[in-house]
């Protein structure tokens, strides 16, 4: 059929999976796929040329399901990566590229881990984006109802969307021919002689993500059964439940299948969607006023409507909320495992506990006491997270003084960690108990710790409606939770850091020191690699790791420079740290939205979130440049030839010089305060000497 569609709903995730983003080496260095921006723009151009106005709808929270470890997938990925590195270091680059691509092509990790950036890009291009409370399909079904204002003319997505009652579904678009393939649900039902409810039953019996294939079908027809045959069985018994019940006498084991079927059917008929009146309710709430299954066992406990709204706007990553409502934080397998990675996870227990505790503190009394357990692949037992006794105190009475408001207004740079730490004392706050003591009671308000009362420090009691003030307030709370304003006073280490390009890297570096996961020694990989990388020096290891934390200016071509196994392993450590800190800041931000401490126009909440730190982790590209510089004593011209993706390698090296100077100031300060040992200090002094020597050749 030729294009006549105007406003079309797009099921975002299947659409993303079809994008031609092929960057085999991206998995080795992290960061945003370099070709993603051009790919997205090309796809938007296709929509525009076809006179289609896309409305992208992303999935939100997960429904509750049984815990799985996916150890087989992890083992296969580990094997592929090991083969890739072995081939790479043997100079077999085509084979290495193939193995690297295969290691992540089925998980789509490079795209799924950057959905927040993709949403930002689409917003910047004026494209409408929405996140469903749970699945995108039911939300698309609601928005495509003719009764809805500005409803969608058509929906483009997977055939599973037919289960949710989408009557006009585009399954494929041929941009070259200017046509598309679509199916009409009414015609299908008429041809099969089924009601939509019977159609759902037949689909579930054939096998669905949440319901396996009905065993009797395999026994009766074999694996080559037809959908029409299953439809006839459903019509014979009127519905799926009666069909299953008919076989229960001969197959008692079908009782478990019956429960799976009813639960899956309830998930479809009562899926939660976000209505235009800003409430989250089942999609067919009138037709199924009495669900056949407890919805709390499918979707988890009921959350505030405000929270579903912030999810819909992409303000917060659903990860922490998923962990909370499921009661489990299941640590995913890393791309590359090391003892240092596991040590970082131990360190992050406190950060993650604080994050979950902060979320629960803004929910109802029943949810405040909800237990959450952590499961990790390298530990035999799960353990409880102490969120009920965890101190997240930041009184609502805390206000911005007129003095700090004026300083924020006068600032010509983005509100940063450094600015926040420098002006922290301008706030009126109670004393803080030690961040590491999770069993300590919340601190009591003490006016003796408040700044002097005078006219310039009078307290503003209104909600914060200014973006910069809201960012300052959020960062103050987050740094407080991270222990930067307790003894030892880590906040002092970032007060004078002004360059926006090294703000995040400075905090990451301090956290790496606090967790004892940064050193000049080789990483202890698990299992030990079967290959040997090129010879290196301790100074090169330390410098390349530290300087891999800062961003680089790269073009939009797939990576064409060398890669490094050690830097990949170290980046995996920083990746989980980066993500955990981002989650903490997002939930901190969310808490102030939920209690209306920060109030913004609805369209500004997502923009506010994108301005908070740790939004997009850079690649480890600068670490690769530094390693080449130290080991090979390369000139700027040679570096530009070896690393063609850099837009301005000299300017990026200038940032690296500035960041290393900041690092050395921090190291010397902490050594003087007996916060780091002599071995660590000496390794940085040695690296500093090597760095200064390398600079002479530039």
UniProtKB/TrEMBL annotation:
Residues 434-463 are annotated as: Disordered. Residues 294-378 form the Post-transcriptional regulator MKT1 N-terminal domain. Keywords: Translation regulation. Residues 490-692 form the Post-transcriptional regulator MKT1 C-terminal domain. GO terms for molecular function: 5'-flap endonuclease activity. Pfam families: MKT1_C, MKT1_N. It comes from the Eukaryota. InterPro entries: MKT1_C, MKT1_H3TH, MKT1_N, PIN-like_dom_sf, XPG/Rad2. Transmembrane segments: none annotated. GO terms for biological process: regulation of translation. Residues 434-460 have a biased composition (Low complexity). Belongs to the XPG/RAD2 endonuclease family. This is Uncharacterized protein. It comes from Polysphondylium violaceum.
